[in-house]
Design brief:
This protein is mainly alpha-helical. The chain has two domains: 2-44; 74-283, Orthogonal Bundle (MetI-like fold), CATH 1.10.3720.10. It contains 14 helices and no strands. The protein has helices at residues 2-13, 17-44, 64-72, 75-106, 112-121, 127-140, 147-151, 158-168, 173-181, 186-197, 199-215, 218-223, 232-237, 247-283. Helix 3 (64-72) packs across helix 14 (247-283), helix 4 (75-106) runs antiparallel to helix 11 and helix 9 packs antiparallel against helix 10 (186-197). The longest helix is centred in the last third of the chain and has 37 residues, at 247-283. It is globular and about 70 Å long.
Length: 284
């Protein structure tokens, strides 16, 4: 009996062909996603003459590209600009979208459905169609080449309002009614009862907003003019003018390597919230 039980358990532990194929496909997919990042880091360590070499390991590794990057351009200012823009945008979206989602989910008033539909309809408009009115407003308000000009299109998010509304609707109404009976005002109810219950959604919204703002390119490229006001993606693009001698590609890869480090840090610190929030968002 013990021998047959051992054979049965070994059979249960033996991977099936479908499982092996699944792991192979996932492994190939992981290699396909990681390889460009590894190539980027390796290229940042190459001399300009070795940039187009097909060798993954640099023939002569050097950190000179990083020194040139900070010496030849105001890259430190670009990093600071990106941090300021991404942090302010994230805080603004988290605050305003949470309030708007709570109001749309928990209050009843005339025109609520129409307002919600109007908010959702803005998600169907391509960003490229909004650039002209954004720029005209920036010119009239004298926001061109300022932090305000970079920030104002992203201070609220239609997707964030939709996401927070969907999660706010799942907060038990009994808890909110009990808080009102105890004399709490609506701000306290939202901040102390509703928000803690939707923390995974709020964390996901904040992280996605930070990543999107950090990688934004088209609008910062249009609204900024002076080099000291550029963000990292826009600043890196200016190195493409030096591609004739390969040094431009080396600096592009070096700048991209530096710019991706904060994103990796954010992911490592909040990966549990990212995975949980995305899973809950998928269920919604």
């Amino acid at each position: 009996m013990s021998i047959s039980a051992a054979e049965g358990s070994s059979r249960l532990r033996r991977p099936s062909i479908s499982s092996i194929l699944l792991y192979v496909v996932l492994g190939l997919g992981a290699v396909g996603m990681v390889f460009p990042f590894v190539w980027m880091v390796a290229t940042s360590l190459k001399l300009p003459k070795d940039v187009f070499s097909l060798q993954l390991v640099p023939p002569t590794a050097t950190l000179g590209n990083y020194a040139i990057l900070f010496a030849k351009s105001p890259f430190a200012d670009w990093i600071l600009n990106s941090i300021i823009v991404a942090c302010i945008t994230t805080v603004s979206v988290a605050l305003f979208d949470t309030v708007a989602g709570y109001i749309l989910a928990r209050f009843t008033f005339h025109g609520k459905k129409l307002i919600f539909i109007a908010i959702l309809s803005t998600m169907m408009v391509p960003t490229e169609m909004l650039i002209i009115p954004w720029y005209m407003a920036s010119v009239q308000l004298e926001w061109v080449d300022t932090y305000t000009g970079i920030l104002f299109p992203g201070l609220m998010s239609a997707f964030g309002i939709f996401l927070m509304k969907q999660f706010m609707e799942q907060v038990p109404q009994e808890l909110l009614d009990a808080a009102r009976v105890d004399g709490m005002n609506e701000w306290s109810i939202m901040l102390r009862i509703a928000v803690p219950l939707v923390r995974p959604a709020l964390a996901t919204l904040s992280i996605l907003t930070f990543l999107s703002s950090w990688n934004a390119f088209i609008w910062p490229l249009i609204v900024t003019q002076s080099p000291e006001h550029l963000t990292i993606p826009v600043g890196i693009s200016f190195f493409s003018s030096e591609q004739k001698d390969s040094s431009g590609w080396a600096l592009i890869m070096t700048g991209a390597t530096v710019s991706v480090l904060p994103l990796i840090i954010v992911f490592l610190l909040f990966q549990k919230h990212i995975i949980r929030g995305i899973a809950l968002t998928g269920l919604k």
